[in-house]
Amino acid sequence: MTDVLTAPSIDYLALLPMIIVGVAAVVGVIVEAFIPRRARRGLQLTIVFAALVASLIILVSNAGIRVITGGLAIDGPSIFLQGLILVVSIVAAMLIAERSVDPAGDAFAPRVSSLPGSDEERELTRRGFAQTEVWPLMLFAVLGMMIFTAANDLLIMFIALEIMSLPLYLMVGMSRRRRLLSQEAALKYFVLGAFSSAFFIFGAALLYGYSASITLPGIAEALAAKPGESGLVIAGFALVVVGLLFKIGAVPFHQWVPDVYQGSPSPITGFMAAAVKVAAFGALLRFLYVAFGGTRWDWAPALWVVAIATMLLGSIVALTQTDIKRMLAYSSIAQAGFILVGVIATNPEGVAAVMFYLAAYGFATLGAFGVISLVREQSGGEATHLSKWAGLGRRSPLLAAILSLFMLSFAGIPLTSGFIGKFTVFEAAIIGDATPLVIVGVVASIIAAFFYIRVIVLMYFTEPGEDAPTVAVPSAFTTLAISVAAAVTVALGVLPQPVLDLVERADVFLR
């Protein structure tokens, strides 16, 4: 008897936002290949912003769609997280497009293949060569993130992981300043990312061996049908979760975070810190809630240990940092721990809290790195050592006030988005019988408040040194990006209810 192959059901309207971004990324590559160098920048900017905005508009118009099409689930969480990725990417693209801050041009090396400090690099800089390959790379990364949050089977999830990760490895190594540090960060990110991808795909293979299915609902059905067979499940689950925890920067898979955050161009660091966390947590939520939602009591204790270690290590080690980008790197590790508290709640309130927290953290992070890019050494590079920020409140009161807002949000101070984010994840954890985890989270938040407030004290109550840096005057791109980030941080802290209502309506996964 001949097997009949059934064509997959594909809803192209539901997939249109991802299709738009993917097509734009391919067009960007074609532009790099065939368009004269002088005309590329303007054309690439047009393609990127047009694609992201068009994709966002289509996504919003499709907000009522709930469908599983092929290996992708278009449901409430995926639509909200994809929209958040697009909005964050639009703001990040504004920071990447900045050319007025660095005296030599933008934040990227004129030609990445040139040796750092070589005559060729100096000549390319003198002639005003601009790096435009970053734009199609960014679009491919955004495409991978959008697919990652909606992937309903492990194979699609792995493909999305690679589409998202490979462009980021390249973008990390493109920095115009501190080239060797940037290239070292890119290599570390690539090597460790390759290991995490290997763990993920090996775990997926083990889960397929157990369930004979790569779909998340299929794995859930196998778990319900064969509850006693646990060897392959435990190994496969652990390896897949390791791959996902690497992307969110959770302890003990966080080693890449400080070096990559410090070595990357600041706009890329902000983009990576905000958007990748959204995508990785979206995939982690879907994997845990759809495939393993019925086995919470088996995997929750392990994630308790990870969340506690992540919150405490990130908060404590950040106290010792003297570089503001490394400090924010350890801050992001601690924030990942706080978000994991919402994941462990394993209830609809936890899903909604995680999505809200990701929005609050994403915009504050983009704004903070936007501010960091404006404080420059006399040589033109970024002044990232904390001692250089002394007295910034006197030289540039507005910039210091905006950075203080973001620091207070990270610390979870009331009337900022960070406070509402922490409150919602802790409330969801209490509902999910994880009160001890909330107590640890509160202690970690108190510890973290010290290093955030230290930056504010340094800016307002410390005398500036003799080698005080300059504050660059940004173009409309960076000004708008920081303004949007600050406005969202305040709005989500003062009037959070509309977004809370939105995430509560979008907290159910299709199975």
Keywords:
single chain, about 500 residues, mainly alpha, two-stranded antiparallel sheet, two-stranded antiparallel ribbon, about 70% helix, globular
Radius of gyration: 22 Å
- Helix run count: 20
Total E-strand runs: 4
In N-to-C order, the SSE pattern is: HHEEHHHHHHHHHHHHEHHHHEHH
| Basic shape | globular
Uncertain segments: none
Largest sheet: 2 strands, antiparallel
Beta-strand residue percentage:
under 5%
Global structural class: mainly alpha
Instruction: Give the strand order, joined by hyphens, for the main sheet.
Output: 1-2
Distance between the termini: 32 Å
Number of domains: 1
The residue-averaged pLDDT reads: 88
Portion in helices = over 70%
Summarize the structure.
This protein has 20 helices and four strands.
SSE order and pairing:
Elements: H1 12-34, H2 37-61, E1 67-69, E2 72-74, H3 76-96, H4 119-126, H5 134-150, H6 154-172, H7 179-211, H8 216-225, H9 231-248, H10 256-263, H11 266-291, H12 296-318, H13 324-344, H14 348-372, E3 375-376, H15 392-395, H16 397-411, H17 417-431, H18 435-461, E4 470-471, H19 476-494, H20 497-505
Antiparallel strand pairs: 1-2, 3-4
